[in-house]
Amino acid sequence: EAGVIEPSSHDVDARDVFGALARDFEGRAKLKGISLDTQLSAYEIRLSTDMMMLQQILQNLISNAIKYSPVQSNVTLELYETEQHVSFAVRDEGPGLSSTDQARLYRPFSRLTPQPTGGESSTGVGLSIVKSLTELLGGEIECESEVGNGTTFRVVLPKVPLAA
Prior knowledge:
globular; 5-stranded mixed sheet; 26% strand
C-alpha cells in the first residue's frame, strides 16, 4: 500500500500456479459443499510476473468466492490467454453485487452488502490489496456481477512485465 513493494519478475506457467491454488482450496470448498471447477488449458501458458504477488491475488479471489458462495454451489476458475495477456477469472454463484457495492469494491475496510455464508470473518481489505498488487504487476482487475446471479472477478496481466 505504501509503494515500498517492488515486483520481481520470474517466468512462470500460469496454468501450474492456478491449478496448484485450486488444489489448495479444494478441502475448504468441500467443507461447504462447493464444487471447485477448473477450466485450464491443456498446455502451459507462460507469464513473466512476480509469483508471490500473483499467488496473493488469486488466493484472495478464490477465498472470497468460497466465502460468499452458498452451500451446494459452484466456483469456477478459468484461465485463458491472448497474444499479449493472460486472464485469470474466478466465477461464483453467490449473491452478486449491487451497483452501490461495486462502486465501493476496492476501498480499504469497505464492508459490502453480501455476508460470508459459513460464518467466516472479513476485514474488508482483501480486494483493495488485490487491486494494488494487480496494478503493480501492470494489470487490471474487472468485476462482472448482478444481484442474485453471482460474481466474476477477472485479473488480466501482461505476458511481459512493465519495464522498470
